Amino acid sequence: MTGTEHAALALRGLVKQFDGKVAVAGVDLDVPAGSFFGLLGPNGAGKTTTLSMAVGLLRPDAGGAWVLGHDVWGDPVQAKRLFGVMPDGVRLFDRLTGAELLAYHGLLRGMDPTVVDQRATELLDVLALADADRTLVVDYSAGMKKKIGLACALLHGPRLLVLDEPFEAVDPVSAALIRDILHRYVGGGGTVVFSSHVMEVVERLCTHVAILAEGTIKRVGTLHDVRGDRSLEDVFVEVVGGRTATGEELAWLSR
Ligand SMILES: Nc1ncnc2c1ncn2[C@@H]1O[C@H](COP(=O)(O)OP(=O)(O)OP(=O)(O)O)[C@@H](O)[C@H]1O
């Protein structure tokens, strides 16, 4: 489709309904190559549904997704070489150790086993998972599961990373580690797009932001464009709306 060649990820007219209820109502988005892109939205906004359609995990009712010009749904083999995904809820084969899981991912991607071995050792080391070499992923903590998910997404050296809530349930030390790795990845020419509802993380990391609410993109642009002179939280609350407490509710809680 014209106009989708230059973006690292281009979404056009994505729509998804579940049981007649619209979850994503026509999302158009361009994630510029080399950007650190935050997809912000409240609970239930449609972030996971949008990203799942963008990476070929959930078939859209309408619309499509292109990665560096390659059609994710029309030419999945070529497109899937170019990106790595860390889905939410971490759907991993968790009866394996971290090293085994990486070896399995490498095999699935048809990678040279020596390269897989070398990269897996490096990734487990950098992500501070090397000590857990005998632990099954099912027994990992939530933060460790995020980290092994990120390692799986990085293993084949993708040009785009798509991460659903990468900082959810992650302690500050692991979060800092993940941030560092993502920064290095973008510094080296990669593109990251991730979903979050944590303002501070997005404000700190991202060059570009989109605010998704009720299944549509409400604001999009560079962090500066979207935020202006205000805090991202102010803009987010204004865009997404929400009730303001009058102070009279829950009066029975005060003594
Ligand atoms: N498999 C499904 N079946 C039915 N409804 C679904 C399904 N997946 C998502 N939904 C609905 O679609 C809407 C968008 O959900 P989605 O998970 O994409 O939002 P989200 O922005 O990722 O939310 P959160 O931040 O809470 O993870 C919600 O109303 C949700 O209940």
How is this structure best described in words?
The chain is α/β, with parallel strands linked by helices and 255 residues long. The protein has a single domain, classed as Rossmann fold (3-Layer(aba) Sandwich). Helices cover 35% and strands 25% of the residues. It contains nine helices and ten strands. The strands form two sheets. The protein has a six-stranded mixed beta sheet, with helices on both faces. Strand 4 and strand 5 form a beta hairpin. It starts with 6 loop residues before the first strand and ends in a 15-residue tail after the last helix. The model has no long low-confidence stretch (mean pLDDT 92). It binds adenosine-5'-triphosphate. The site of adenosine-5'-triphosphate has 11 residues, from helix 1.
CATH topology: Rossmann fold
Task: Say which CATH homologous superfamily is assigned.
Answer: P-loop containing nucleotide triphosphate hydrolases
Average pLDDT: 92
Unreliable stretches, pLDDT < 50, 5 or more residues? none
Form type: globular
Biggest beta-sheet profile: 6 strands, mixed
How many strand elements? 10
Strand content range? 25-35%
Tally of structural domains? 1
> What is the CATH first-level class name?
Alpha Beta
What ligands does this structure carry?
adenosine-5'-triphosphate
Query: Helix coverage percent of residues?
Result: 25-40%
Helices, by number, come to 9
Gyration radius, rounded: 19 Å
Distance between the termini: 63 Å
Following the backbone from N to C, one meets helices and strands in this order, namely EEEHEEHEHHHEHEHEEHH
Helix/sheet category? alpha/beta
Per CATH, which architecture? 3-Layer(aba) Sandwich
As laid out across the biggest beta sheet, the strand order is 6-7-8-3-9-10
